[in-house]
Amino acid sequence: MISATISTEIQFYQLDPMKVVWHGNYAEFFEQARSRLLTKLKYNYAEMEASGYLWPVIKMEIKYVKPLVLGQKINVTATLVEFEQRMRIKYLIVDADSGQRLTKAQTIMVAVNAETGQMCFSSPQILLDKVAEWPAG
Which of 25, 27, 68, 133 is 20 to 30 A from residue 6's alpha carbon, by CA? Predict the structure, then answer.
């Protein structure tokens, strides 16, 4: 499996009135980890567009296990778990100090032909090639 991890610290501006990270801000953490993963795969957003495909997120599921709080250091790992028909990426947020699981999530992205706007029903060959070129692949 191909994965990438980012580390960050929870900031004041990410909190809601209950003094925990507002649920909508989790998407940003996932995006940062996903971007790192795609760069590692050598198929980041610029490379996607250059290859003629856009990859919108069409579904996101999140399970909030424990809240994230001000000053907490977290690690967010994104792992590519499916790629032949679509890109399914799983995420895990853990406390950087204790390793305690805080949040689990996944996103599903589909390829869209940039020229026609049509959704592809299988992943384009470029993604399959990138995964095959991966050292562990």
Answer: 133
Write down the pTM of the prediction: 0.94
pLDDT tens digit sequence for 29-62: 999 999 999 999 999 999 999 999 999 999 999 9
What CATH number is associated with residue 50? Answer: 3.10.129.10
Tokens at 49, concatenated: 């567009």
**At CA 21, angle to CA 19 and CA 24, rounded to 5?**
135
80 is in which domain, residue-wise?
Answer: 2-133
The answer to whether residues 36 and 30 touch, using CB atoms and an 8 Å cutoff, is no
Strand partners, 34: none
CA 91 – CA 26 distance, rounded (Å): 11
Question: Which H or E element spans position 131?
Answer: helix 125-133
